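Supplementary Methods S3. Input chains for the assembly prediction are listed below.
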Amino acid sequence: AQRVTQPEKLLSVFKGAPVELKCNYSYSGSPELFWYVQYSRQRLQLLLRHISRESIKGFTADLNKGETSFHLKKPFAQEEDSAMYYCALRSSGGYQKVTFGTGTKLQVIP
Amino acid sequence: EAQVTQNPRYLITVTGKKLTVTCSQNMNHEYMSWYRQDPGLGLRQIYYSMNVEVTDKGDVPEGYKVSRKEKRNFPLILESPSPNQTSLYFCASSSKGDPGRGQYFGPGTRLTVT
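Predicted structure tokens for the full assembly:
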């Protein structure tokens, strides 16, 4: 069974401070991992996908297969980063079974 | 505009009264899914569909039905709703040809079952 763990329900940081949102996963195959963001009263939207290795809104995430982690990082938090962040794992092999973590609320304090 | 739409956005109903939540996408996506979002539990996949007439159970399928008769539509059916199905429901779609793009989500349907 696949599982995604986000250990922090709430992460509060001051504006300008570094941010790290943790995500650990359990999956027997090669995982496809994503980060989604949900701003207040809005729908979820894709933030990052592990295969692209790109930076979106200053956020980056590296897949560490040895530690089975996919932590989301940003060097300097902005107030507009305040939102719910979800890590998600999609099973490989053409299936669309997706497991989300329980989410971390990021609160950036001015 | 590329989008996923859901109707209704808000619904209050009573136990046992059958209801359907519609989901439609205009991006010609093959894959579609339904999720429920509950406080402290995040999003949990109810059902997903790989293409027309191809559906499979997610993690929490009990009490729900789906059908995929057309590529653009993926309705969620609650034959006999119960209070524990009170939740926020999201539909999502994604492309088989560009799987790395992740999913596009609908705006959500807030369902209350009394």
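The longest strand of chain A covers residues 83-90. Chain A touches chain B at residues 6, 9, 32, 34, 36, 43-46, 49, 51-52, 86, 88, 90, 94-103 (CB under 8 Å).
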